Amino acid sequence: xxxxxxxxxxxxxxxxxxxxxxxxxxxxxxxxxxxxxxxxxxxxxxxxxxxxxxxxxxxxxxxxxxxxxxxxxxxxxxxxxxxxxxxxxxxxxxxxxxxxxxxxxxxxxxxxxxxxxxxxxxxxxxxxxxxxxxxxxxxxxxxxxxxxxxxxxxxxxxxxxxxxxxxxxxxxxxxxxxxxxxxxxxxxxxxxxxxxxxxxxxxxxxxxxxxxxxxxxxxxxxxxxxxxxxxxxxxxxxxxxxxxxxxxxxxxxxxxxxxxxxxxxxxxxxxxxxxxxxxxxxxxxxxxxxxxxxxxxxxxxxxxxxxxxxxxxxxxxxxxxxxxxxxxxxxxxxxxxxxxxxxxxxxxxxxxxxxxxxxxxxxxxxxxxxxxxxxxxxxxxxxxxxxxxxxxxxxxxxxxxxxxxxxxxxxxxxxxxxxxxxxxxxxxxxxxx
Length: 433
Fold this sequence. Notes:
CATH superfamily of the largest domain: 3-Deoxy-D-manno-octulosonic-acid transferase, N-terminal domain
């Protein structure tokens, strides 16, 4: 099957090139950087280079604590971070600490075409390749293994559905690909069991880097300005919303206003380009992308990029988007780190473990996907400040135990490199099974 995949990917290269151009025309790719998708653009600095790949924004942000831990332990390492979305490319430089800014290079990841991957690896010559979550591209993994580049998979996740599909249609391929990794760190015990059943030979103890991420940043000046504009009004944030959710939020806000006349409902769409669409749903609402502050109206459209840290700090209660519609939910750990009471809709499959953790701790509450249920839940939080504070404290406490994970993973990675560690080798074998 690996040979068939290699043949088909090579055959598909012209179509993939056309697909990339079409994505660029829709703003989903950077036209000037399309050559990077074919492995061009290497500008390798001297010294050891570590390649870390993250699919999108959430995965890239989860890598930051690991990057910090690696940089602190190995001052000569340089880091190549690849991602697959324009949003992650735009946000990554904003997240980097001063210590990392001169040591992190960003490129778009090459697609899994043999020639493109070979060009990328020949240009960058990484000493080790680390991937996060579920990025198992066969040609890329095989090419790394053929060049003797150690492979590491962290936050390895495998849903029950994906595990069943692999086991039914390609068990041999799954076993071979997982066997290429020198170290696999499952995200949870459930993921570990599924990976082991598919033949993963080297599993470290589970650990979720997303639990160890730093709180989302916020510009102090912008935060002070927004707080002054809002004043003492109660704030309900609907964060990272998807189509179909904003209408429910607006209907719920209308139900709340007789009891909370000053309520400000902030709509922060997952995709900021939907700002005009939301403005049509809420005529007269101020739009942040146009430089407008919250006015006397009851709705504010935060159609900007990279400001969730700002908005969560302002909110008295937040609904995590993607959960009222069958999308699977967005990251509930972001508001948990910022002391914001959390409401979740019925669809949180993408973050099932994090959701269960927060619910067990009492740090998040489920709500129904209808205006009346939303309004009742928001009103309950707004009128019971002691309960809201207890929710926020419980959520923050639930995510705190993962703080030592980045350091442990950094030691494992550096041991594989034979660089910067007193340990003889990775501890995965001790934890196997």
